[in-house]
Amino acid sequence: MTTDDASGLTDEFLAAREEELAGRVSPRRLEHIRGVAATAARLARAYGVDERKAYAAGLLHDWDKGYDDEGIRQRARDLGLEERLGPWLVEHMPQVLHAYTAAEALGRAFPEIPADVLRAIDRHTVAAEDMGPLDMVLYVADALEPGRRFGRIDELRAAEGEVGLEELFFLTYEYWVYLLLERRRLMHPDTIRIWNTYVARRASRKGSDRDRS
Ligand SMILES: Nc1ncnc2c1ncn2[C@@H]1O[C@H](COP(=O)(O)OP(=O)(O)O)[C@@H](O)[C@H]1O
């Protein structure tokens, strides 16, 4: 099996993980998870991304969402993630840790999960400067699944299929950053770097669109 091979993501494997999830998260969270998996699969079809991987990433992204703040801090330490993430993040941002711990724990427990699915899970909350198509599909699906309600969601939902995947990711990320500011929440220190990267990429994309027309 190559690292990105999806052949281990059989129907049986996914059904077994879904059953385990019912014991790991609340019914409400499970509903969100199912919504994200279905939305990720739909986005994958629309944007030419591997549908099974997208579904699997959606199904598994909140694997560790059942921990409370102290529990998830301890899990991050137990998985040896404190060095990578830094003690400040572990102490002050428990709400983002589930993404990193899920990717690490799932990778250890289930070698059949492709590396790119684990990567998408790892970056589903904070994102990254080098988001690939699968990463973007999961990030967007997490925000747009049918159970989510927030101010500009209808506008974002309407953009699905009308704009490219990177633009849809950008619009979703923009809104998420805006919400963090509005709610006066702490921001992950990578947020400005990621924002700047995608603003610059967008400007050059728009520039080359203009050159072509
Ligand atoms: N860049 C960021 N910096 C700090 N917190 C963030 C950032 N992005 C998202 N969050 C917060 O992390 C939490 C988990 O978000 P997320 O993983 O997307 O949702 P969920 O796991 O519920 O599907 C939310 O409270 C969200 O506001």
From TrEMBL:
InterPro entries the UniProt entry points to: Diverse_Catalytic_Enzymes (IPR051094), HD/PDEase_dom (IPR003607), HD_domain (IPR006674), YqeK (IPR005249)
Q: Where is the HD domain?
A: 29-147
Q: What is its EC number?
A: 3.6.1.41
Q: Which reaction does it catalyse?
A: P(1),P(4)-bis(5'-adenosyl) tetraphosphate + H2O = 2 ADP + 2 H(+)
* UniProt keyword terms in alphabetical order: Hydrolase, Iron, Metal-binding, Nucleotide-binding
Q: Name one GO molecular function term.
A: bis(5'-nucleosyl)-tetraphosphatase (symmetrical) activity
Q: Name one Pfam family in it.
A: HD
Q: Per its UniProt record, what SUPFAM superfamilies does this chain match?
A: HD-domain/PDEase-like
- PANTHER family listed in its UniProt record: BIS(5'-NUCLEOSYL)-TETRAPHOSPHATASE, SYMMETRICAL, SLR1885 PROTEIN
The UniProt entry, under NCBIfam families, shows: bis(5'-nucleosyl)-tetraphosphatase (symmetrical) YqeK
Know the name of this protein? bis(5'-nucleosyl)-tetraphosphatase (symmetrical)
Species in which this protein is naturally found: Adlercreutzia faecimuris
